[in-house]
Specification:
The protein has 498 residues and is an alpha/beta fold. It has 2 domains: 5-239, Rossmann fold, CATH 3.40.50.300; 258-492, P-loop containing nucleotide triphosphate hydrolases (Rossmann fold). The chain has 17 helices and 24 strands. Helix 5 runs parallel beside helix 6 (175-190) and helix 13 (369-383) packs across helix 14.
Length: 498
């Protein structure tokens, strides 16, 4: 009987120095199905799919693709066998056009010359199949993240892919872009393509997948038929415990002192912003992509200039010209893109946590190694950073643990105001709960939090008050008892807002 599987992974194990990332993991992908893989950060999901692309060589185990057996893959072998992967960090070249990216490494030629017109025609056909409007001549750098992802999917179509692997495809996308991506997946399925779909957004798992594989701590846990399971069961299998609450309760700890006040602040795409945040308060900043939330945070943190208005911090007018000035004042930013803006990936956990305070723990340019180690150890324990060593490079940690390292450095700096920009983006449910508890601990200990989140439930579940922006302007403010998803969306869309 003909094998019904397009891919089989048998007893895959991957060891790194001091870390076993995968322990005897086996799974199969049927022809024409969407197989979801779920698990907490550090469960081994990304490592597992990288064994399929040749980006990671397994220590042991077998990879069987369309009945052909391999002990390891290479990127070329994967492509030759119809496997394509769309990673969280896209592999496109920003300085080339959309069409040129589709034909990277295999350009259409007329004689010895590259035929750009032919590539643009083929690109246009692929985009039309996906029902998206992208000018093939547009530089990828000028496309939104959602359209950049569609370029990656179109590339897979042109390569006649048999198995498409998508790693957190919806994490950086807007709601409308997610819908376009889901339609693209459905189109690929209609062409007989199998898909491995990795996502922390369980709603998408239930909407798209036929079966779901659960991993935990590098080990295979269970495979379930999606329509026969539910969110509670998946979470229980992923974390190995019941999560009793999505948003842990918090004591009322708001004090009278106004820690941050903006008066008629404009600049960096924002206009005439007025808001106050009190000590012990979590102020949620809501809005759609492009509303100006991150841009406002950049002004407060000294990454961008205001053109008018005044900023007061703890009663004194401030005008931070750069992040160092903001940090010295007691302001911290946990950025949306932690890898690019929050961490030194090639440095150790110990180094990253101590980065803001090296000046304080050094004498005559000599670092006090005992204080450096004690600081790192303190926040490793407090934040439950999973690592065999504080000397581990941050780039080797899971997304959730990387986020904890970012938080650790601001705790070490003893910041008074912490701005969280999408703090749980790409982070699993277990790590989310830990970060929510940390936010509660911060405000209960007299810190102040400005929370930017595109997840409506998170925004309402964690905020004491919500201010909504739309196109760089304030369109509403809601107290806890007024929180309502429809109202917030109307304000965010600037339709009938307060």
């Amino acid at each position: 009987m003909k094998n019904e599987y397009v891919l089989q992974l048998q007893h895959i194990r991957k060891e790194y120095p001091g870390v076993v990332a995968l322990k005897d993991v086996s799974l199969e992908v049927k022809k024409g199905e969407i197989l979801a893989i779920v698990g907490e950060n550090g469960a081994g999901k990304s490592t597992l799919i990288k064994t399929c692309s040749g980006a990671v060589i397994p220590t042991s185990g077998k990879i069987i693709v369309n009945n052909k057996e391999f002990h390891s893959m290479t990127p070329q072998l994967a492509a030759e066998n119809g496997i394509a992967i769309i990673y969280q960090e896209f592999n496109n070249v920003k300085g080339l056009s959309a069409a040129e990216n589709l034909f990277l490494g295999r350009p259409i030629k007329k004689g010895i010359l590259i035929d750009k017109k032919a590539m643009e025609r083929e690109a246009e056909k692929a985009f039309r199949q996906l029902n998206i409007k992208i000018d093939p001549k547009t530089l990828v750098a000028n496309l939104t993240v959602g359209y950049q992802q569609m370029v990656e999917i179109a590339k897979a179509i042109l390569q006649d892919v048999k198995l498409l692997i998508m790693d957190e495809p919806s994490a950086p996308l807007t709601t409308s872009e997610v819908e376009s991506m889901i339609k693209a997946c459905e189109f690929m399925m209609s062409k007989g393509v199998s898909i491995i779909y990795i996502s922390h957004r369980l709603g998408e798992i239930f909407r798209l997948s036929d079966r779901v594989v659960v991993l935990r701590d590098g080990e295979y846990v269970k495979t379930l038929i999606t329509k026969e399971t539910n969110v509670d069961e998946l979470i229980r299998l992923m974390v190995g415990r019941d999560l009793k609450e999505s948003y842990p309760p918090r004591k009322d700890c708001i004090q009278d002192e106004v820690v941050l006040e903006l008066k008629n602040v404009s600049g960096n795409g924002n206009n005439n912003i007025n808001l106050k945040i009190r000590r012990g308060e979590v102020l949620g900043l809501g809005g759609l992509v492009g509303a100006g939330r991150t841009e406002l945070a950049e002004i407060i943190f000294g990454l961008a200039k205001k053109t008018s208005g005044k900023i007061y911090f703890r009663g004194k007018e401030i005008n931070p010209k750069n992040p160092r000035e903001a940090i010295d004042l007691g302001i911290a930013l946990v950025p949306e893109d932690r890898k690019r803006h929050g961490l030194l990936l090639e440095n150790s956990i110990k180094s990253n946590i101590n980065m803001p305070i090296y000046k304080k723990i050094s004498k005559a340019f000599v670092i006090n190694k005992n204080r450096e180690l004690a600081n790192a150890e303190k926040y490793k324990k407090q934040l439950i950073i999973k690592t065999p060593s504080l000397n581990q490079l941050v780039k080797n940690l899971s997304g959730g643990n990387q986020q904890k390292v970012v938080l650790g450095k601001w705790l070490a700096a003893n910041s008074e105001l912490i701005i969280f920009d999408e703090p749980t983006r790409g982070i699993d449910v277990g790590a989310k709960l830990e970060i929510y508890k940390l936010i509660n601990d911060l405000v209960e200990n007299g810190k102040t939090v400005l929370l930017i989140s595109s997840e409506m439930e998170e925004l309402m579940g964690m905020s004491d008050r919500i201010v909504v922006l739309s196109e760089g302007r304030m369109t509403g403010e809601l107290q806890k008892e007024e929180f309502d998803q429809n109202t917030i969306m109307r304000m965010a869309s600037n339709v009938g807002g307060k």
